[in-house]
Design brief:
332 residues, alpha/beta, Rossmann fold, Alpha-Beta Plaits, 2 domains, four-stranded antiparallel sheet, 11 helices
Length: 332
């Protein structure tokens, strides 16, 4: 089973770095989520990993670059764009063509069509498929060679809630068999349920890499909720111990910088009654937004209710037209 090793990946578009000296590893037996804001370089990174873009650095799969793999679909399955197929070639024929090029038995085509819920539309033309059905056909192609590694860019695009749950279980099962999954998504709540490890980038540079639990624990949004009829006295005592304290409502404090045991000790020593101590764990969304705050490429400006829609935007704010133009130039 393959270990993915990316070392020193870099790519520049028009003099602007899209990916800069990016290195990380993806280990077998885990789903590794790939996160970053729009424009962070996620899609470019995946293309560099598969040799589809020219750039610096190397990526190996058990020590072998993708371009050197014999019958690559039997080693690495990839889905990097929506509807990656000829629109008028029938779905089954599309997969048969890929199978022939990679010495994959035709019987495997029917297996993946059944597995992906596409058997009833096997003779259909992809141009008639919805985005969700097109994603399923792309996934069928990725799974066709029964590979040891999957590299997927936003595979849940266009899927309904049942389809999203289905792909989560599919990828977790794939990883549980000892294989590797590297998957990007903007659905952070779904990534929290699916991923074991994370690679987080911003402006093409590595921000974090490791277990998802460690990433969430590093967030400042982790806190302890403390309820007391003597909340004012408790807040003063806790601040004296270096904690950061915020009053959420009368009698309820949010405390960071001390764990629940330490807060209980402070209260005991000060003869302060406690009615509740409850650790609050940050969400993946909170941890992600905090970690990437300085790496946001685009910042929206929300006008207060009642503002004149015809008034000019605040100084430094992008207008709708300029924002759209910049997004058109974005390289994910």
């Amino acid at each position: 089973m393959a270990v993915i090793e990316a070392r020193g990946l870099a790519k520049t578009y028009g003099g602007k770095p899209a990916v800069s000296d990016l290195s990380f590893e993806v280990h077998p037996g885990s789903v590794t989520g790939f996160l970053g804001p729009n424009g962070a370089g996620k899609s470019t990174t995946m293309r560099l990993m598969l040799g589809l873009d020219r750039g610096a650095g190397t990526t190996t799969f058990d020590g072998v670059p993708f371009t050197s793999l014999h019958h690559p679909m039997r080693h690495v399955g990839a889905l990097l764009e929506a509807k990656p197929f000829h629109p008028t070639r029938r779905a089954r024929n599309h997969l048969r063509m890929l199978a022939a090029a990679n010495a994959i038995p035709v019987s495997r085509v029917d297996e993946v069509l059944e597995q992906l819920g596409l058997a009833s539309v096997a003779r259909g033309k992809p141009r008639t498929f919805s985005l969700g059905m097109g994603q399923r056909l792309g996934l069928a192609a990725a799974l066709l060679g029964d590979p040891h590694t999957l590299i997927l860019d936003e595979p849940a695009n266009g899927l309904d809630p049942q389809g999203i749950q289905w792909i989560r279980e599919l990828l977790k099962s794939f990883a549980a068999s000892g294989r590797s999954v590297f998957v990007s998504s903007h659905l952070l709540s779904e990534m929290a349920l699916m991923a074991d490890e994370l690679v987080v980038i911003g402006r093409g540079r590595l921000i974090a890499s490791g277990p998802i639990g460690d990433f969430v624990k590093s967030s400042r949004h982790n806190s302890v909720l403390a309820r007391s009829p003597q909340a004012t006295e408790l807040a003063e005592a806790l601040r004296g111990r270096g904690a950061q304290v915020e009053a959420l409502e009368p009698g309820l404090l949010s405390v960071t910088g001390l764990d629940a045991a330490a807060i209980g000790d402070v209260a005991f020593d000060a003869s302060i009654r406690l009615h509740e101590l409850a650790p609050r764990t940050a969400t993946l969304e909170e941890a992600f937004l905090e970690a990437t705050e300085a790496s946001q490429e685009y910042h929206a400006v929300v006008a207060p209710v009642g503002d004149d829609p015809g008034a000019p935007p605040p100084a430094g704010a992008a207008t709708d037209s300029s924002t759209t133009a910049r997004y058109g130039e974005d390289q994910q």
